[in-house]
Amino acid sequence: MTMARPCLKVNTSYPGSDIAGGTAAALAAGAIAFKAKGDNGYSNTLLTAAESLYSFAKTYRGLFTGSHGFYDSDDDRDELCEASIWLYRATQNGQYLEDAKTFVDLTLAWDLSWLSKKPSCQLYLFEETQSNQYKTAIQNYFNSWLPGGTVTYTPCGLAWRSKWGSNREAANTAFLALAAAESGIFPDRLRKWAVEQINFILGDNNHDGGCFSYQIGYGTKYPTHPHHRGASCPNRPAPCGFENLHATTPSPQVLVGAIVGGPEADDTYADNREDYVLNEVALDYNAGFQGALAGIVHLQAKNILPATNNKCPCTN
């Protein structure tokens, strides 16, 4: 990639409390994970960094504006809410919990995505307080997603929130649904619904005769033309350029594990590298999906995997 790719940063005069808050949340969660594994030294390193970043984010509020229109944030309260909750869980310092209560937004969330972690914060606060105001907020979110709510469903049953990254939207909420079920929110309904959404992505659909996996490398039928620069390039030292984007042959590199954007609202899908809306892959496309898979493995281990009823089951 030969174009200019400058390194950007946030500081006291160029704030980015959304970025700092989100990073603090990740570091605090990491501190908990490493402590649980017995690595107290690294856990403390992560926690110190998390607290420092959180303090910076609270003191210098302001959204990062250096991405030139790509992945611009519209709020920092969701990231600050996540940061304060995870810091509370890591330290048991009650001030962090009080902070989270000031940052949470109890209005109905549109989705769970890179842009909005609002429903996560609603669930976190319910888990920590058992307060009905947070329980109602997260229940309202799932009622809007479950059949009969405001989210459209494809003929084969994918909860289709948007054209861009339809699989991502469904998988992220499936992950959140499995987490909420563990906390007593509609456990039977949410577990069944979440597993059915992942089943659709992995093959319970009618594309290409059925049994088509939107995860590359899973099963026998999956996308071979993802919109992904690295996967499109031949082995080095052969050059790679826009001719590879426009090539009609399968990508030289199999991007095993990646989730592509997903189908249209009527379940139609074209495996076309140039159609980045349906075929783009991204970290946030996989994040919730992988979390949902972990939740399903947990249900299997506990022998409580629900019976499902996908509309277009794979019979192979």
The DSSP helix count reads 12
Q: What general form does the structure show?
A: globular
Structural class: mainly alpha
Tell me the β content: under 5%
- Largest sheet composition: 2 strands, antiparallel
Trace the largest sheet across and list its strands.
1-2
> What is the terminal separation in angstroms?
42 Å
Enzyme class: hydrolase
GO biological process, one term: cellulose catabolic process
Protein name: Endoglucanase
Active site: 271, 280
In words, what does this structure look like?
There is one protein chain. By secondary structure, this protein is mainly alpha-helical. Helix content is 49%, strand content 1%. The protein has 12 helices and 2 strands, in the order ααααααββαααααα. Helix 5 packs across helix 6, helix 7 runs antiparallel to helix 8 and helix 7 (166-182) runs parallel beside helix 12 (283-301). The longest helix is centred in the N-terminal third of the chain and has 20 residues, at 17-36. The mean pLDDT is 96.
